[in-house]
Amino acid sequence: MSKPDAVARVSVSLPPGLLEKFDRVAGETGFKDRSKALQLSMRNFIAEEESVHTAGSITGALLVIYNHETRGIDARLTDLEHDNRKIIASSTHMHLGPSHCLKVLVVRGRVREVRGFEKQLRNLKGIMQLKLSFLKTESD
Question: What is the CA 92 to chain-centroid distance, rounded?
Answer without folding.
Answer: 18
